[in-house]
Design brief:
Layout (H helix, E strand, L loop, with lengths): L4 H8 L3 H8 L7 H14 L5 H7 L5 E7 L8 H16 L3 E7 L3 H12 L5 E5 L6 H8 L4 E4 L10 E4 L1 H14 L5 E6 L4 H16 L9 E4 L3 H12 L7 E4 L2 H13 L9 E3 L16 E3 L2 H16 L8 E4 L2 E4 L9 E2 L1
Parallel strand pairs: 1-2, 1-3, 3-4, 4-5, 5-11, 6-7, 6-8, 8-9
Antiparallel strand pairs: 10-12, 12-13
Helix pairs in contact: 1-2, 1-3, 5-12, 8-9, 10-11
Amino acid sequence: MAVTIKDVAQRVGKSVTTVSRALHGYDDVSEETRTLVEKVAEEMGYRPNTLAQRLQKRTTDTLGLVLPTFGPRFSDPFFSEFLAGIGNKAADFGYDLLVSTQPPGEREMHAYKQAVESRRVDGFVVVRTRMNDERINYLRGIDFPFVAFGRTHGELDFPFVDEDSQHGMRLMAQHIIQQGFHRVACIAPEPDLMFAKYRLDGFREGLAEAGGSLEDRYLKYSDLTQRGGYEKANELLAMDEPPTAIAACNDLMAFGAIRAAHEQGLAIGEEIAITGFDDIPMSEHFHPPLTTVNQPIYEIGGRVCEMLIHHIQGKPLEEEQVILKPSLVLRESTGVETEEDI
């Protein structure tokens, strides 16, 4: 089996990025590290990927983003904010942004490979990372520039920006219990998404710290859409002992849950609490305004984009791995009369 750049990195005890930069002669790598990397690579029989080398010699001034979404209609406000952040920052640096939408799986991977092999982009922004992410494995394997919004399970040897979702949902769970809602449900994304694990883990931890718990019967998985949140909330509200609080792991599912509660004639914020995550612009103006976790999506898009451009241009990154601390935005959907940030 061919020796990969990851194998060399493991042998020398350096990151894949450092080893790659050493092998390609970047001047921000010390002479000692460069000599060690070149010696070990030679001993192991490492041969650089010729496709990746050819791509590095030619630039398109274009960044790639493949949005993992199903269906021809695309209206997720989260991605709209994220795209605006990337696109505006890319324009500041004189780069274009090539965006396509593909459902996760074979067609999605084909889109990545086609863009790489046809030299259409200089690097990728990878979004909604998964536990074992085939996209990241592929891009690492060919040493192709990318920055991820999110982490994966296992070795984190690539540049990323992420929100500490676990901390955010821990705060949310504690707030729900403090407000007096003790029969608590959660509508979570499918567990193969990495942020889904963090959010669910944090929510369980927060409940436990506040003296509560999440019973299995009150956990529902959905698809991050408003319709999905509505359907799962109806299932929860139809139970013999329906929950008195529903924490949705994104704002769109929370909006669906609010609709379901309205149809049941429930007073939201009094008889039932409903919360979200992301703080998309609509959440402040929904009825009632939504308690949620603030995630500066536009700013994150810009930061990921700038990191990728610096990576492409061979400039050292001030931070290769950034984890941001979120804050709670408390509104009427949990019985808070005036908006508060904590």
